[in-house]
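Box S2. Input/output pair 1.
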Amino acid sequence: MSIHRSKSIYRALILLLCLISAPVYAQLNIEIFGGGASRIPIAIVPFADENKLQQSITPVISADLQRTGLFKLVDPAGLSPHAPVEVVYSDWANRGANALVIGRVVAISGDQVEIQFRLMDVAKKSQLTGLAITVPTAQLRMAAHRIADVIYEALTGDVGVFSTRIAYVLKRGNKYALQVADADGYNAQSIIEYTEPIISPAWSPDGNQLAYVSFENKKPIVYVQKLATRERRAVASFKGSNSAPAWSPDGKKLAVVLTGQGGSQIFLVNADGSGLQRLSRSSGIDTEPNFSPDGRYILFTSDRGGSPQIYRMPVTNTETSNAERLTFEGSYNVSPDYSRDGKGFTFIHRNNGQFNVAVQEIGSRQVQILTNSKFDESPSFAPNGKMILYATEINGHGILSAVSRDGQTRQHLSVQIGDIREPAWGPLPTWK
């Protein structure tokens, strides 16, 4: 049974645990479908001397840009400039390229490598931007992601998210694992593993911590764990169930769902577990809180009106009925996640018996369904608001997918055996 086939939101969150199964150390494979109507033609020349490295730079950059659906890769075969003076712009114009990426790698002392790159405007015959960074060889993929971010930002005007990370839950045998990986699925690491379920990972705003729910003590408890040291602490271990953590934008508080005071209701707690404060008070099930980017509001799912719908309430004026219903299309709308500009949100909408990722603008209440699969879950916006990460099922196999905000491009991120669930897209890195 999936969360979207259950009549009870709370019961569904528990039953979902039985579905999570995947090999812990499997590498994600990525398939891309669709693309924008007008893609930017770009040529990426293999960097000089990158073949001497254990990890080449340009294949990572190419894969990053291609996944967005916004770029058309132009084959550079037969041409290999590595500096602006070597570029014959007419050659690239004849191949239909609007932009050209060139560069080189230079070995420094020890295992340090300097990576130099330039982005050239073919029509204007000039440099758009460039970057020189020095990194240890162990961080070559991250350096490539950073370069892809710079290219993306220069050509689209939006912030790139290739340097971000994602979190998700896997299960292998009787072990559950909370994993963190690069946005492209590489460098996956298990943060914690148990024989009891782990659900609901949530990134701290600075990307240094994860909140999650663990059943290791035979009941759901909310923990916060530092990624660098693996140090963790229980921040909600009250009577009854403790679930659905969500960070405030300043990282000082968490919204959590507790049942200890009757029913399933939303509370605030300080990041160290102190200062419990009740936010919602209804006769229904209130769950899945999510803060607005400015911290003033919380979106949440509730069946207080008879069916699961998405509501919004201010963080102030607590313990009142001052909650506004936002979704009205259909009898089942759950799992809200604010867009990064605060003007809309993504959620799961039941549509003709299917459970799909949708977006809704708060002002106009206009809804757009972005997917056509049967059982989508847990949508999470990328920090630039351009893509949405979610879990889905294909042929009974649970995988991660991503869809662009306009629904034009989709990606499937899968492993060879098993399921992946509970995705959460991390924040922008601190250097941004």
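Box S3. Input/output pair 2.
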Amino acid sequence: MKITMIGSGYVGLVSGVCFAEFGHDVICMDKDEAKIAALKNGQIPIFEPGLAEMVAANVKGGRLSFTTDIKDAVAQSDVVFIGVGTPSRRGDGHADLSYVYAAAKDIAEALEGFTVVVTKSTVPVGTGDEVERIIREANPNADVAVVSNPEFLREGAAIDDFMRPDRVVIGIEDERARQVMSEVYRPLSLNAAPLMFTKRRTSELIKYAANAFLAMKITFINEIADLSEAVGANVQEVARGIGLDNRIGTKFLNAGPGYGGSCFPKDTLALVKTAQDFESPVRLIETTVAINDDRKRAMARKVIKALGGEARGKTVAVLGLTFKPETDDMRDSPAITIVQALQDAGAIVRAFDPEGMDNAKKIMPDITYCDDAYDAATGADVAVIVTEWNEFRALNLSRFKTLLTQPLLVDLRNIYRKDEVSRHGFTYYCIGRPNEEVKA
């Protein structure tokens, strides 16, 4: 099939490339001329394992191309996906749908023949209705079916998630779209991937409900971690004990500094606002948002406590800046709030991240960026693990200790065993485990 993907950011690029890998002819379109020029030259604007190689292979195979010309791309397509950004809107927290609606208008003016227009971006309930209204207003003669097809991709594992999905949710109002979307995803039938067809509004709500539930699960285990510290329990064992219950499951039960990234923060907030608009508030999610916001600054207070209650003039080595490993995404990363709170307390910050420093410099230009974890630790009074990159899991602790002014480690991801760290002479603070402070 001939597919156009409007928007070549994270969702659009990954989805477009994977559709090309399925064997479809895909055009990735974006108004950003610099981005398209870079893609044509093989330069990938985001870090996602395996993406660069897949882009190169499909461009070479003639199944993938890039353009800034939306009219030509849409005119020759059977299916047009909208994969543009929907950031939180300033002022009220609603999803900013201006890019989605602008894309819908541009698509309408370029349609030729029956076309399925699919919203891939994460959008509030009712957005598909408005997209259809915009298209029909701009082009009353358009022969179009508007579909909702939310993405469920984890950054760092997006390609595998796309190629081996738990489910593919497709919301339709026009039955003609069922056959087209079944053909789009037909290559997945070999993996017996369940295609779930629903009404359009149901599909839109599934996406928000899924992300809100996962965010709530993370927030739950973080609160249990605080309680574990207070009562002398081990949150990792608590998580395993409840996670082995199949009704609960083990995923998203790792205590830490709070959730971040491009999805959970904005999607939970957008769901809260949507629910309020429909006078059906989601109190659990409202609380989840508030607790997660507070937790990030609480992690900075934990570091300050480890420093004896005073951070002014102290140097902090921050290991990890992205919201999770295997991505360069800094959006709503806990590290941003933690660093800001430490600076507010008068601390000097040295930081290292394997992939995220270029993006971090745009947000936090006034900290020192280092070559590696050991460079960051040099002359620091405390080291703080914020993101659980694999290379931080296997530090040479003997060497690491000699670089710090004092052997003090705050592990906000619980990636080390206490006995191992204490054996090397560190004073060690972690999350939700008994006897918080362990000394050699």
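Caption for Box S3: The longest strand covers residues 2-6. DSSP finds 18 helices and 14 strands in the chain.
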